[in-house]
Amino acid sequence: MLQRRSAEHWAGRLYMRSISLRITRVLAPFTFITPNGLTYLMMLTGILAGAALVVPGLAGAVLGALLIQVYLLLDCVDGEVARWRRQTSLTGVYLDRVGHYMSEAALLTGLGLRAADLFHQDGGGSKWEWAFLGTLAALGAILIKSETDLVDVARARSGLSAVEDSAAVPRSSGVAKARKAAAFLKFHRLVGAVEASLFILAAGLADAVHGGLFFTRLAVVVLAAVAMLQTVLHLLSIVLSSRLR
Question: Is the pLDDT of residue 111 over 90?
Answer without folding.
Answer: yes
